[in-house]
Design brief:
- With 608 residues, this protein is α+β, with helices and mostly antiparallel strands.
- The protein has four domains: 3-242, no CATH class; 254-385, GAF domain (Beta-Lactamase, 2-Layer Sandwich), CATH 3.30.450; 390-462; 469-607, Histidine kinase-like ATPase, C-terminal domain (Heat Shock Protein 90, 2-Layer Sandwich).
- The protein is 61% helix and 13% strand.
- The protein is built from 18 helices and ten strands.
- The strands form two sheets. It has a five-stranded antiparallel sheet with strand order 2-1-5-4-3, with helices on both faces. A five-stranded mixed sheet has the order 6-7-8-10-9, with helices on one face.
- A hairpin with a 5-residue loop joins strand 9 and strand 10 (593-600).
- The relative contact order is 0.06.
């Protein structure tokens, strides 16, 4: 959707909000002179208090972006007790208070109150028309009124709301509409059940206790609502913290090629319509993540980089001030408020989190506090990631230097020695006119084989490890997938525990030992079934590879491993020991093999 289309839709949706607002608020102002507050004032006050509690404790039943309330039964009772005019005025007052408390925008407040007013007036008017034409014997008439009034109220309310969702430029998917419709259907059904129960139960009670009974059951209803709201919000908060933990793990990886697959984690940690996560590397800004109403190509300019550098603390920008920002090129025209949160660690700005909302009201105090916590975690994560990147660069330089020394001291010296011997033999042959002996040739060939073996090992060390490309879990899954394509063995993979960052070198060791164990199970053990388990525990990370192959004698394998090239059991054990890990191998001839590798969190790499 282009900016021109967005602006056109916003203009039409504003006209629609004004139209609904004029109709709804017209009914409210018309009802004020006719509202009565003197008849049963205590009952009216108690109903208003229950209504306030219901609106305060909103329930996100199916989506954290959609909130509903259980106010309708109270509104229905208030309408039955005091009439439509009093119900409208009191309900409008409650909604104004609720909107002020949650800091909703003025257009949103006007529209919400107006649409509820239209729904209530429409349902009441249609019911009165129906009753004037049809009459049923008691008690079916009351049941029909409850059912019809509820259905009409929710129908008018949802049609009015859905039409706005359709007009406005903000996307509203079929899945979101289904969630919303199901949410409203659940509330409507529960309301009908409660109201029918109250009508039936109170019909058998003395008149002097009916008011008390209705207030009592509505109070129980609100207590249940408050409990559901608190528990649901606690579940959402747990989900948010879990997403934040996983996001931190993913950001700690050196490779960020697959971070776009994790961007929903950031959306789960903070409810927003758009966000951009930037990292500062080598005095320049790098885009790590983006989602929502963000331009397909984020325009970078010197002015924007300068603006990002000058932001000292969390800054909220709304309204016409957005047009003055060079960063306005990040989001499209739907975003009406932005918040810039610098990610600062040890007095150093390591990144920037920019969040956008389609609402011009901005962000509440609780949201800002939540965003502050998120920013602190992200700052720590990006700082750790930066240190890991620097450490990896140093390791790469050291590894290249080591390989250069190995080639010079090993392969280079061996080849130079062979060349020297061959030249010497050739000179003796020319001087004495003799032949080169076979054992000399065999000796040269053996030395060349050793040099070729060292060369292959050096080439293997230079290869890009799949862990660097995909991460540990995905690298293991890719290796399993490729192995299964050969059709030799059935391989199952499972992961236990919440994943956390281990560092590239440790993950590489885990992957190398896993790969060699898998290869041994397929090629040497002739296994038909292999189970692989990766477990993230409190004290250590473990990988287990178990097969149903022919097995082997561990003693014989260790003896033969002295002469095996490249990656035998001895080499695997040396690697594990280097990183403070524990390698265990259980095998016997005819009974399969189980290999377990456990690496403690505080390994030698981490201590160094």
């Amino acid at each position: 959707m282009t900016d021109k289309e967005i602006l056109f839709r916003k203009k039409i949706s504003n006209y629609y909000i004004i139209l609904i607002g004029m109709i709804g608020w017209g009914f409210i102002f018309y009802s004020i002179p006719y509202a009565t507050f003197t008849e049963k004032p205590i009952v009216l006050l108690l109903l208003m208090i229950l209504m306030l509690l219901s609106e305060y404790f909103q329930i996100p039943l199916f989506s954290i972006r959609m909130f509903s309330t259980m106010t309708f039964p109270i509104l229905f009772v208030m309408n039955a007790y005091f009439g439509i005019h009093t119900a409208l005025v009191v309900f409008a007052f409650v909604l104004i208070f609720e909107s002020f408390h949650h800091k909703r925008s003025l257009p949103s407040t006007i529209f919400n109150i107006a649409q509820y007013t239209i729904s209530l007036v429409g349902a009441d008017w249609l019911i009165k028309i129906g009753l004037s034409n049809y009459s049923l014997a008691f008690p079916y008439e009351n049941v029909l009124i409850i059912f019809s009034f509820t259905a009409l109220y929710f129908f008018i309310n949802n049609v009015t709301n859905d039409l706005l969702f359709y007009i406005r430029p903000l996307p509203f998917t079929t899945g979101e509409w289904k969630d919303k419709a199901l949410q409203e259907w659940v509330i409507a059904t529960m309301s009908i059940i409660l109201l029918v129960f109250l009508d039936t139960y109170t019909s058998y009670l003395p008149e002097n206790i009916i008011d008390f009974t209705i207030i009592l059951f509505l109070s129980i209803w609100i207590v249940i609502t408050m409990t559901i709201s608190i528990l649901t919000k606690a579940r959402i908060e747990k989900k948010r913290l879990n997403a934040l933990s996983i996001l931190s793990t993913e950001l700690n990886r050196n490779n960020t090629n697959d971070l776009n697959e994790k961007k929903n984690l950031l959306a789960d940690t903070f409810n927003a319509n758009a966000f951009v996560l930037l990292a500062k590397e080598n005095h320049s800004w790098k885009l790590l993540l983006k989602d929502g109403q963000v331009n397909s190509e984020v325009a970078w300019s010197d002015d924007m980089e300068l603006y990002l550098e000058e932001i000292p603390e969390m800054t909220i920008v709304t309204g016409k001030d957005l047009e003055k920002l060079p960063s306005n090129t990040i989001f499209n025209k739907m975003i009406l408020s932005q918040i810039f949160s610098p990610l600062i660690m040890d007095n150093e700005k390591v990144g920037m989190l920019i969040v956008g909302r389609v609402s011009a009201i901005g962000f509440s105090f609780d949201e800002i506090r939540s965003l502050t916590v998120l920013s602190n975690v992200l700052a720590s994560t990006l700082k750790t990631r930066s240190l890991l990147l620097e450490n990896e660069k140093l390791l790469i330089v050291e590894e290249r230097s080591r390989i250069a020394r190995d080639i010079h001291d090993g392969i280079g010296q061996s080849l130079a020695g062979i060349v020297f011997k061959m030249e010497s033999s050739l000179r003796r042959k020319n001087e004495n006119k003799g032949d080169i002996l076979n054992h000399q040739i065999e000796q040269w060939i053996e030395q060349l084989r050793e040099s070729l073996k060292e060369l292959r090992q050096s080439i293997y060390s230079l290869r890009t490890c799949p862990v660097e490309q995909y991460g540990l879990k995905r690298a293991i899954q890719e290796k399993i997938r490729k192995t299964e394509e050969e059709g030799i063995a059935k391989i199952t993979f499972s992961q236990k525990g919440e994943p956390y960052a281990l560092g590239y070198q440790i993950e590489k060791v885990i992957y190398d030992i896993f790969r060699e164990s898998l290869q041994n199970s397929v090629k040497h053990a002739k296994a038909k079934k292999i189970d692989v388990m990766l477990k993230y525990g409190r004290e250590q990370t473990m990988i287990k590879i178990k097969d149903d192959g022919i097995g082997f004698s561990l003693y014989d394998k260790l003896i033969s491993g002295q002469s095996e090239p490249h990656f035998g059991i001895l080499t695997m054990n040396e690697l594990a020991h280097k990183f403070g890990a524990k390698l265990e191998i259980d095998s016997a001839e005819g009974k399969g093999t189980e290999i377990r590798l456990g690496i403690r969190h505080f390994s030698k790499e981490e201590k160094a």
